[in-house]
Amino acid sequence: MVLFNELSEDCRGCFLTVSTASDRIKSMFYHAYNSYLDNAFPYDELRPLTCDGQDTWGSFSLTLIDALDTLLVLGNRTEFQRVASLLQDTVDFDIDVNASVFETNIRVVGGLLSAHLLAGRAGMELEPGWPCSGPLLRMAEDAARKLLPAFQTPTGMPYGTVNLLHGVSPTETPVTCTAGVGTFILEFAMLSRLTGDPTFENAARRALRALWKTRSDIGLVGNHIDILSKKWVAQDAGIGAGVDSYFEYLVKGAIMLQDEELLNMFQAYDQAIQNYTRFDDWYLWVQMHKGTVSMPVFQSLEAFWPGLQSLLGNLDSAVRTFQNYYSVWRQFGGLPEFYSIPQGYTVDKREGYPLRPELIESAMYLFRATGDHTYLQLGFDALESIERIAKTPCGYASVKDLRDHQLDNRMESFFLAETIKYLYLLFDPTHFLHGGGTEGDGSWEEGGDGGQCVLGAGGFIFNTEAHPLDPAALYCCSRHAQDHQELRDILLSLSQPDGRSKPPAKQTEDPPPNPSDSIALKPGEKRTPPLLSCPVQPFNARLSIFGQVFTDNT
Ligand code: DMJ
């Protein structure tokens, strides 16, 4: 919670509002959540105007899966426990449903993985060996396995849709959006490291590398690609719809996995994006081969970009871009899906605001990085607008048109997974998800086979559906640690001057290495700098972390 003495003079008048913001956000959550449970469960989504439910992205009680970790974020451990058990009893992925590979991954696999990793903190009874095993992990793995047939293509780039029972339909279109190819590495790498099955991470990496090779001579990617022929079908390059989370996952994948390859990819893209698409701190759409402007439009999905830039330390431009986007919010009391920059107005048939989180997400990162109360103000504005425009007796409805406040009969699951979560976290800068461990609430747990790792002691990485993943979990499971040791042995043997290989480690005698062993120097061994390093920073600067503190030592 933000304290009174932390507020600037001009914001002290709003102290009362600040102090009650968290309560208001909780009420918002429970109004939406209880309405879903009472009227829509087990359907995917609540229809807030007719007060009933509908299946949308599958048929797996999507809103409940997506909302599960938000319950814990708001401190409701008992309901988290109840729902985690309920989902185990009721959700079945063996269903004859055509599902979006992308949406199922970010909402279902991401939601279950995150809940699995938070289960200890939520007071659930843990299986021996957690987090390397557990019922929610098995569910996440089960769901992800249903997606794997989509990746079995000659290029490694996935189809956009898969039937959960029968695999990819022979008549399935090979055209996938860019984000649909490149938004898997966070969930799939975590899943591989926890389960010991490298298939998921390999599939995600293969798709990323294939996509990278298709960039144009000027370094841009388009919007939709034929994953069989590798031809770009939609050649608009930008940072919004169809592309957004591809860039997000390169940055967050680089941070979570300490992966230089992903960071290099993003930095090359970022240079091209800044050169060709950025004008006055807006980002336009351009033709991917020529760099000529194809659409001078800002899309609400692009509003994640200032937050992402802040993770890289590009604060000045992030702040200026946020101001542009916030001016649009103030003009309409929400972000229209499309906004024509030259006309300063909405675009025909794109006047809606389906309660998206992106601007609030950026505000959360930028408040953490700067402490500037502008970002809290955006939080107040969002709270007021959503209550005033979108609240119905039965939940919150997507705004069909921000000009006249007509509503749509839909409440997307990301409203509970993301919008409310980021809003809550914006007003609670000491929440464990911002830093955790001794600097946060002092609570962390040991996990892994034989208690090999410490969870919850550092920062979390949010997947694109705002499901927090604990990077420490990557090093918990011996099946992964053992692979790591074997790889290390091979590399060491290759580096022997006479090419002699060392005998492989005897597994019966050599237990899997403790993660901390892997960074201990052996006699005569020389320390090489890590690819990415995070020097210690005062807690307040931690979120800019990833920005100011992340240094590329290569
Ligand atoms: C969410 O499902 C995710 O944030 C995704 O990356 C983009 N669209 C919605 C929220 O707007």
UniProtKB/TrEMBL annotation:
Record localization: Endoplasmic reticulum
Region (Disordered): 495-532
One Gene Ontology term of the molecular function aspect: calcium ion binding
Listed EC numbers: 3.2.1.-
Binding sites annotated in the UniProt record for Ca(2+): T464
Active site residues according to the UniProt entry: E103, D244, E337, E358
Keyword Cell wall biogenesis/degradation listed: no
GO biological process: carbohydrate metabolic process; endoplasmic reticulum mannose trimming; positive regulation of retrograde protein transport, ER to cytosol; response to unfolded protein
A Pfam family per the record: Glyco_hydro_47
Coiled coil region boundaries: none
Identification of the protein by name: alpha-1,2-Mannosidase
The organism of origin for this protein: Amphiprion ocellaris
Gene field: EDEM2
